[in-house]
Amino acid sequence: MSVSTVSRPAVAARPRASLAVAMLGFFVVALDAQIVNVALPGIRNDLGGGLSGLQWVVTGYTLMFSALQLFAGTFSDRVGARRAYGLGMIVFVVASAACAFSPALPALVSGRILQGIGAAIITPASLALIREAYHDAAARGRAIVYWGLGGSVAAAAGPVVGGLLTQIDWRLIFFVNVPVGAAALAVLSRVTPSPRRPAPFDWAGQISAVAALASLTYGIIEGAEAGYGAPGILLVFAVGAVSAAAFIMLQARGRHPMIPLDLFRSRAVSTTLVIAVVTMAAFYGVVFVQSLYFQQVRGSSALETGLLFLPMTALVALLNPWVARLMARYGHAAMIATGQVVMATGLAGLCLLPPDAPVLLVAALMVPVGVGGSFTVPSIIAVVLDHVPAERAGTASGVVNTARQAGGSLGVAIFGAVLASGEFMAGLRTSLGATAAVLIILVLASLSLRRRRQREI
């Protein structure tokens, strides 16, 4: 009798344990993406570094998170989601301790990169556990929303907890991961081992994927200071282009590719992944620039900045259970399109505000950005998972999370590059306004998902 035949019923017998583990995993991963932003000025005061250094504190994490999602998705399928999740959580907790003890900025960035590796392994494994435990599409959709709730709670708590802890010592923001990680591993012991699909790893594909994403991100961040026409920056972009071409070729011709290209034959999947990149670029970019805006332009403390983020993040957490009902009633395409319009409205409002607008009004206009994201993310994930069989859940999760986190990395890089190219407020308005316009354009693509779904039915 095969491993998968034995394991599948056992895993499904404890769906609540699988869901709890998945929620804790996404919570700790999302918490670390949010909690750092309000601590950036404190980190610079202690460890030094300019705007590009602060960008690397954020993107060192999100870059490795996105670049390794593809590897982590196939890794989860091959060794089993439960085992992959446990390994990722251990790496994440150890890296968090390393960040807390960092003596200099390069050491902190190195710790953040290691955190990103752990987070990359955790995320697709957590979604694969849900896919294994919930075979009914409607129940799985609800579980994905609750998985998203873990991230939403982290997003709500992150800025406030980060601001509070930074008042004492910014290093404390990394210690909070230790008890959460320990709790996740304790619950994981109640989940039955997942089925495995042993196969060779696509090391060449993984190396080319990391090289492509890292080169693009490095070029955008460092090019803002060195100049995008500088020979070194042009060389970095060339390396990125060659690496991307090599990755595509390896996936098309390799015997064991990380991403079977037939996943992209579904236009719904391809369209959804593009939308995921843009929406996450908008969200991460706003969090990055608004953290700097509140503290550097408006003179707010780290704690005050965290509290100003609270209306946006707390409302997202409260809306998550409601989103599940809306998804069931109106469908994924309508939710994605609505979320994009709401996000664009908030971005446009922030773009048009005068520099001396009341900070509470600024905080209020950030709310639509978060709410719009809460509408889009669960539906984006559900669309992709609905178009793949259960045995490819880890791979598909890796693909969709690569798109999301690559969008986040590029958002921080691009927003930061625009800020560095001129006066702060002018750069802020340019980045916000341009992103709002792109989101509105993509609404038509979102609505096309509904038409394709109707034709399939």
Account of the protein in words:
It is built from 18 helices and no strands. The chain is about 85% helix and about 0% strand. It is mostly helical.
Q: Quick recap of the structure?
A:
With 457 residues, the chain is mainly α. It has 18 helices and no strands. 83% of the residues lie in helices and 0% in strands.
SS elements, strand count: 0
The low-confidence runs, each spanning 5 or more residues with pLDDT under 50, are 1-13
Radius of gyration, CA atoms, in whole angstroms: 21 Å
Q: Helix share of residues?
A: over 70%
DSSP strand (E) fraction? Answer: under 5%
**What is the makeup of the main sheet?**
none
What is the rounded distance between the termini?
Answer: 36 Å
Topology (SSEs and partners):
Blueprint: H1 3-12, H2 15-35, H3 40-47, H4 51-67, H5 69-79, H6 81-100, H7 105-133, H8 137-168, H9 172-175, H10 177-188, H11 203-226, H12 231-253, H13 267-297, H14 302-330, H15 332-352, H16 359-386, H17 393-420, H18 424-456
Helix pairs in contact: 2-7, 2-8, 2-10, 4-7, 4-11, 4-17, 5-6, 5-7, 5-17, 6-7, 6-10, 7-8, 7-17, 8-14, 8-16, 11-12, 11-17, 13-14, 13-16, 13-17, 13-18, 14-15, 14-16, 15-16, 15-18, 16-17, 17-18
